[in-house]
Amino acid sequence: MELILIFISAAIVNNFVLAYFLGICPFIGVSNKLSSAFPMGLATTFVMVLTAIVTWLIYHMILVPYHVEYLEYVSFILVVASLVQFVEMFIKKVSQPLYRALGIFLPLITTNCAILGLALFIVLKDYTFIQSLFYGVGAGVGFTLAISIMAGIREELELANVPKSFQGAPITLIVAGLLALAFMGFAGMITV
Amino acid sequence: MKKQVSLATEYTKGLWDQNPVFKQVLGMCPMLAVTVSAMNGIAMALATTFVLTFSSLIISLIRKIIPTQVRIASYIVIIATFVTIVDLVMRAQFPELSKALGPYIPLIVVNCLILGRQEAFSSKNSPFRAVIDALGMGTGFLIALASLGGIREIFGSRTLLGIQVMPDAFEPWLIMILPAGAFLTLGLMMGFLNYMALRKKSREEEEILSRHLQQSTMSIAKGQEA
Description:
The complex is a heterodimer of chains A (192) and B (226). Chain A is mainly α. Chain A is built from 9 helices and no strands. Chain A has one domain (2-186). Chain B is flat, with a radius of gyration of 23 Å. Chain B has one domain. In chain B, helix 4 packs across helix 5 (95-101).
């Protein structure tokens, strides 16, 4: 039961994008079309789950026993960077069209704050291994959900008559604000 | 060879023309997350500037040694080292501030602004120029964070830097200190700035147009006289 609560909390109530502002760059950069936003969300989710597993193991098996917790950031970011590299190679092998569609944004997953944020939150909240696994999946699902909704709205927005000065980033931010407002409806539902 | 711009322009371009937040839309995560109050925004910007300046200096010094294939990874490790320094110093010296900023201090590592400057500037320029550029970008970031934090603090909790500026009769807008308020305020700010820039441009164009019109009417009048 607690695991399900952690999952829902990370996915909806404390959505990484709309409540913690993590992963704003791809959220604004890749949310033009649903056809690229959804795969981007899936790739991010995959990296997130792997990161949750690997960083938990590194922190509790290497950093804590040897009392070198201050190497947390350096080691975590290296793990994330190599995982992204791995995913990039994997996608390139499996699906060429997807690889071309995601293009430059794949390596940018490295600097997606949501991934490193996830690793840091897991340490901060002192989750067990299984809990962090569920937390990682939840965060990934939440990110995919947010970016897909955003892409859906922006596809409609193409047809709307937006004032010239608000085109591009400003209107995207305002839409994100309204979306965050909607997600606020879930606030207080679960406190994990 | 590319023409060298003056050092002053190298600094001032970050303030406005290439402002990292308003013009380049970089470093959005900390921008939105910590600007609940002006003080938090300033602290965050100063921490970011410190990391940016020192990593720019180091990366610019060793730019010819780093192999291109592993440059991103090397940049990140250098940046992460300085972030660790900032984090430890802040925890020791300003425990309250460090608690308020929480995980967003370590998240400076993945601030696209810092990595972006290394890739676009430090890896191609001399150490001195890189430091000037970093200081300029840092100041631009400070302007953006302080203004957004100030606006949110005034309307969200009636204060500015902890001093009450709005009368008691003013009911604080709760939305301003919530996540949704951050998105909306920044969106409106950017829209407003774009509007001002567009208006200035169109006014200049109008002036040129009216001058042309005047000249042409004058020449027509002259022609009729003759």
